[in-house]
Amino acid sequence: MGAVKMAEGIWWVGAIDWELRGFHGLATPEGSTYNSYLVVGDKVALIDAVKTDAGATLLRNVSEIVDPARIDYVISNHSEPDHSGALAQVLEAAPDARLLASKEGVKRLGDMFPSQWEIEAVGDGDRISLGNLSLHFINTPLLHWPETMMTWCPERGVLFSCDPYGAHIATTERFADEVGIDYVLAYTRTYFAYLIAAYRSAMKKAASKTASLDIKMIAPSHGPIWRDGLKLLLEEYRRWIELELEDRATIIYGSMWGGTRKMAEAIAEGLKDGGLDVRAFNVELADPSDVIAESFLSRVVLIGSPTFESGVYPPVEAFIPWLRIPRDKSRQVAVFGSFGWSGGAARRLQDILRSEGYRVNDEPLTIRFFPDADAVGHCREYGRRIAEWSQGERGEEAKTAAE
Ligand code: FEO
Hints:
403 residues; alpha/beta; Metallo-beta-lactamase, Chain A; Rossmann fold; seven-stranded mixed β-sheet; six-stranded parallel β-sheet; 14 helices; elongated; binds MU-OXO-diiron
């Protein structure tokens, strides 16, 4: 896979990682790409590098278009190692290139590669001319490190957006419309929930900064490039930033002998009766990133645990930190679980979740040992009640969270 032309004077020159299976805990079953872009006017700019071990691929792709020694500018939108790891190889091949980064980026690269290079800071609204093309810099801190920026090429309408709008998918096709819009969007959503959702307010500012641009293409630092389907992508991002809840419920449970699992199944039926789509995950089988992607716009999250040593079943308790990732304290949560003699898991779960700031339903559902037919009926009814409870607004917190 060599360089891919995106527009007159602009090429994708990155690398595909078919083997990647995890990124900061986010499952990446389809691998990923590290996108670098070459912009060729009278002068030549390279936007971002790739992981260290993909540096040779990057330089080979650049060589298909220009001699790397001709690169005048290397722009670091983001200094995380998946985009800066090969900088040393790039700068060795392009000894006359000027390295540009945001003010924070200068510090970050300076910390990561002490005394190695002279790095020039560019600020919000600064621009460089490549002759017939120009590149403008837009500060977008926290997306997803404090130094991150986007780069805009107005003559071609291409926004090099860095991590936002990205997805972890390895494909030989470079454009989302070639891969399949719905397919790419599903991975984009997971990526957002796991890596961007915690910085919704920063993303909202970035989206408002770029709203007036005549964008024809969004070129993120991971996964396919967006041209057709742009409107849908931006609308989906708006919904995600605003935490627009969907009529869905997520059940997360653990089970030792099947009692709590049986409760989860019956509660799921009740939630469905109440008008919610439901997905249930056993914490000992599920991938946390799937649960996060599924639950972050759920009206309600139900957590089930059997009682273990008068407390919460450890695999369930160990799962709770994963729920913090989207940083949504307005989330509505309900708890349930089976017990043998003493009970205690539901109460303890409520305490933990309240201490984390979640809005916890006051009435946990507990069942002794295995639910019989009557108890299954109670569980189903409980699911209906929770569905009704969840229809209430999550309050102003959900809206203000994005402000
Ligand atoms: Fe793709 Fe934040 O690195």
